[in-house]
Inverse folding.
């Protein structure tokens, strides 16, 4: 099954009741799958007039307590930034998928990872975070969709799945979990009509009283602290004795893994550290992975964005080299291997 | 003794932040009277805009969602699509509905979204201090048209009801005003019709209310009512621009 | 072992479909697999190619840059990919369309007039399957029985009548000497 379709099927199984989207390459199969399947499974599919409308339809539906989702690719996600900020400010859970492509501007339609900063550091105006997952296979995209809906509800925050055109377009075998039958109760805050049985619920991000807004934001950051403490996740591959640790996420982590395997065959003690959560960044896990490391090589399909978090997480105690291809160009395992060999040679 | 006039139950008993002579208070009251009369407060979800009525979530007794600027129709769509049996209305000003949110407004019409849109046209951005709105009259002085709205550089005002009436999914497009008691009665009837349309799943009902902004117009409350009557109504004629129930009636 | 395959040609020649059949063969045979299409702005014409990886181990990069096997169904694709084939690999070309012959000595180059053969056999448009059949015969990657099952997975029930003709084309390819 194609990655994009797998994301859609997983969302339906996760109890997502509505999908609002707008066509954009390379994620369109996701919308098309939803159009085919959502109504049959008792949900709502609607093609919105714009990305902005789509994210606000998600905001509306999520306000009433149902699981809601939208998906797009880089330029479209920029348009959704407004709505994501409002949802963060209104403590609304939702899942947003970014099947990244090259940028800036209209860029290209080929796979890229140049929205890392946007997703993890600036997904809209204001003081807030969203939880960002970075799957690297079709199966993991399925698993992460289920998780994303659960975490969104648990912490009442928007959650993003940061994929890319390669993962969206590729086909791999996949097994789906059983559909969720029991979903969290949101009746203590959802605005779905009070039925005369309770005070009215207000979904709002406006606090004109500065200290009140500050308190709201501080409360939210307490939740973020819990997320940072408990929700980080990473894959460590051959890191135990690794002298060179390659850091990469998503599609570029697959390329890096091939390169690390090839380096091992050549006798180079290389390992791969692959963050599965980008925010929060798995700092503890990276420190563990680089215990014996002398150098780090960060590989991305960008000019170097996650590399900053890698440096911060290791507090600059290790030299961090960078190798990236951008604009829709996918690095090859041979290129990455050459970089690893360069570092290995330099270290000797 | 029978009570003939009372505070609507679904309008919360709090003081509003609206200026003296502002039309929002009247329209809020009309919406809540209709909600009370139909007994639907518990089944209603309101969506409020960015603008002077941004804080209407403090006034409406039903559940309320505060939407991003211009996006109330999209938010209302999301609410209604997953709660088709609830009553959903958006309450928006002219900048919100007819400038930054024009696309959202047009498309709830094209989709025949089964919601009610209450559109307050007072020809100005009230909350930000009286700048030119899409509905500012030609020649009208605002903070950003200090020499009067020049249509050659600022363009022409949008006649929203006329535009929305052209859309197949619109069930009701009606312009009303609050400058006189008969007009206020008419406005309430239109709002009621909108909610009845929603009950009968007829599609989008948009009720444009010509309202006042004494503070930013620099007029007294009384003069503001005169402004609506003498300046606005001639440019924005009151009336029903589309009503599918009347059309059905004709066919029958 | 990992076999990496590139299939390339014009849009409309069934390049992506042939890749999909191959991927499903992998699925049915219990292998690890990936299928990655190139995608562009054009809906018709233009070039199309896809990368297929079949392996006993989890697949790293699904993008094939040095294939063990190339199926090229037009001149531009042949030119683009023939030099990337790994030494010892196979390049299959549709000689009804590709005019050049391969001068690389370190790979097995096979020219098959697949489009003409398909027309002659009354299987218009099945040149992709003839080439795929030939590739399977050369690589012994999957048996015909596996392909039969894969084809059923790849063709929706609405178009079930196409299963037989596609399998026939596979067989023609497999039987080519």
């Amino acid at each position: 099954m194609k990655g994009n379709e797998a994301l859609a099927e997983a969302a339906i199984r996760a109890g997502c009741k509505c999908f609002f989207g707008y066509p954009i390459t390379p994620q369109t199969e996701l919308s098309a799958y939803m159009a085919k399947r959502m109504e049959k499974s008792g949900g709502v599919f609607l093609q919105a007039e714009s990305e902005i409308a789509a994210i606000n339809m998600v905001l509306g539906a999520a306000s009433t307590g149902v699981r809601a989702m939208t998906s797009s690719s880089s330029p479209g996600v920029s348009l959704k930034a407004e709505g994501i900020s409002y949802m963060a400010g209104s403590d609304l859970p939702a899942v947003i998928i970014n099947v990244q492509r090259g940028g800036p501007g209209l860029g290209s339609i080929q796979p890229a990872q140049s929205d890392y900063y946007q997703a993890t550091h600036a997904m809209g105006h204001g003081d807030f975070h969203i939880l960002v997952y970075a799957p690297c296979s079709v199966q993991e995209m399925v698993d992460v969709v289920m998780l994303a809906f659960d975490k969104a509800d648990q912490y009442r925050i928007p959650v993003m799945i940061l994929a890319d055109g390669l993962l969206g377009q590729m086909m791999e075998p996949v097994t789906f979990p059983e559909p969720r039958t029991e979903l969290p109760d949101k009746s203590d805050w959802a605005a779905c009509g009070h039925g005369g049985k309770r005070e009215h619920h207000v979904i709002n991000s406006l606090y004109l009283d500065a200290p009140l807004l500050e308190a709201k934001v501080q409360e939210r950051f307490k939740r973020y602290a819990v997320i940072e403490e408990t929700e980080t996740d990473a894959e460590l591959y051959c890191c135990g004795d690794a002298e060179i640790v390659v850091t990469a996420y998503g599609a570029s982590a697959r390329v890096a893994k091939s390169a690390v395997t090839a380096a091992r065959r050549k006798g180079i003690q290389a390992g791969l550290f692959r963050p599965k959560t980008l925010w929060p960044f798995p700092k503890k896990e990276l420190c563990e992975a680089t215990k014996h490391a002398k150098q780090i090589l960060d590989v991305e399909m960008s000019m170097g964005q996650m590399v900053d978090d890698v440096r911060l997480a290791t507090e600059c105690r290790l030299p961090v080299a960078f190798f990236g291809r951008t604009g829709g160009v996918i690095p090859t395992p041979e290129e990455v291997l050459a970089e690893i060999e360069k570092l290995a040679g330099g270290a000797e | 003794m029978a009570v003939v006039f009372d505070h609507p139950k679904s309008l919360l008993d709090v003081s509003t932040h609206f200026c003296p002579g502002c039309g929002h208070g009247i329209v809020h009251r009309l919406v809540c009277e209709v909600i009370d009369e139909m007994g639907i407060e518990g089944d209603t979800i309101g969506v409020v805009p960015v603008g002077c009525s941004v804080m209407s979530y403090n006034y409406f007794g039903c559940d309320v969602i505060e939407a991003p600027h211009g996006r109330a129709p999209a938010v209302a769509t999301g609410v209604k699509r997953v709660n088709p049996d609830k009553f959903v209305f958006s309450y928006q000003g002219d900048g919100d509905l007819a400038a930054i949110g024009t696309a959202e407004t047009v498309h709830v019409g094209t989709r025949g979204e089964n919601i009610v849109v209450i559109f307050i046209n007072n020809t100005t951005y009230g909350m930000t201090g009286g700048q030119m709105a899409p509905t500012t009259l030609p020649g009208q002085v605002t903070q950003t048209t200090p020499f009067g709205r020049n249509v050659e550089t600022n363009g022409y005002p949008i006649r929203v009801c006329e535009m929305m009436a052209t859309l197949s999914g619109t069930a009701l497009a009606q312009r009303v005003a609050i400058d006189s008691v008969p007009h206020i009665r008419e406005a309430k009837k239109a709002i009621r019709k909108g909610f009845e349309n929603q009950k009968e799943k007829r599609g989008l009902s948009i009720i444009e209310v010509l309202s006042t902004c004494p503070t930013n117009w620099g007029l007294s409350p009384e003069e503001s009512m005169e402004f609506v009557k003498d300046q606005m109504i001639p440019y924005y004629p009151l009336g029903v621009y589309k009503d599918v129930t009347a059309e059905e009636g004709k066919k029958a | 072992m990992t076999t990496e395959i590139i299939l390339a040609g014009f849009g409309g020649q069934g390049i992506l479909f042939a890749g999909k059949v191959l991927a499903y063969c992998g699925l049915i045979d219990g292998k690890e697999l990936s299928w990655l299409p190139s995608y562009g702005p054009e809906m018709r014409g233009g070039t199309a190619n896809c990368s297929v990886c079949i392996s006993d181990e989890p697949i790293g990069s699904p993008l094939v840059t040095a294939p063990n096997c190339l199926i090229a169904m037009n001149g531009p694709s042949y030119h683009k990919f023939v030099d990337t084939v790994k030494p010892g690999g196979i390049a299959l070309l549709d000689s009804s369309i590709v005019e050049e012959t391969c001068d690389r000595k370190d790979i097995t180059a096979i020219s098959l007039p697949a489009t003409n053969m398909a027309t002659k056999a009354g299987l218009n448009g099945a040149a992709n399957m003839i080439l795929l059949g030939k590739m399977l015969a050369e690589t012994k990657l999957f048996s015909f029985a596996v392909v039969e099952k894969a084809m059923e997975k790849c063709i929706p029930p609405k178009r079930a009548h196409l299963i037989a003709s596609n399998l026939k084309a596979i067989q023609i390819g497999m039987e080519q000497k």
User: Anything to note?
Assistant: Chains C and B do not touch (no CB pair under 8 Å). Chain C has a mean pLDDT of 93. Chain C has one domain: 2-175.
